[in-house]
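> Could you send the Aminoglycoside phosphotransferase domain-containing protein prediction when you get a chance?

Sure thing. Input:
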Amino acid sequence: MISDPSDSASFQAESLKKGNRYLKRGQKVFPCPDPVDISTLPPRNEVITVLSNRDGKLVVNHDSSYVTKLGYRVRRAESEAMNTVAAQKRTTVPLPWVKSTNFSPSEHYASEDYGSIRMSFIRGSTLESKWDTLDQESKEAVCREIWDIVWRLRDIERTDLVGNLYQCAADGTPSKGILEDLQKPAQPLTSDEEVRARLYERYPHAGGWYPDYWEYAQIMNVPFSDWSEWMEWTAAHRWDIDGIDAVKEIVSKT
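Output:
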């Protein structure tokens, strides 16, 4: 089935394109013929589909049976957030369940956070792929449902890992990314004032407990179609996020 080894590439984010299917053998991938009967593949061979490839993070569907998210800055807090949401059952949205995790440096990211989360596969279509096919009434209904989900998730009780910290990742560790403390050891954030101060000090994606304006700020910066405009129009409350936007703008130029 694989006749030309010169067609192979390494199983790395920079070698794979979103939406493409590949035959994977060990740590090598090859162009995948279409169609292919998965049951006829030799041992340790599989068909993978790249669901997402962004900022060094890969989300890959394996033989339409399970999904792996892996790469740079895939952290333990993400799997902990998924487990917490699933355990408290605050939403009817189908959630993948975590099968296994691994968080350790790799040969490609020896000095950086590197991890993988293996989870069940939820069939469906992304909102981005369907949004422009919706009429205005449907767009409004979808956005109101999303806000309802956001507030249900906001009601999730803090776990013992988090304690009384104001903002942190779901496993209780200090934030990474936008809110990461560059001092050693990293200090926890215990109030909204400290969150705002950290934003001005420096400017994902990990689950955790964030200030109540956090989802709004992220949603207003989603670049596809007019979804952010509809989300702003249907929001029950609007926050002034000019400060956050200004910090992001500064960092994007550094």
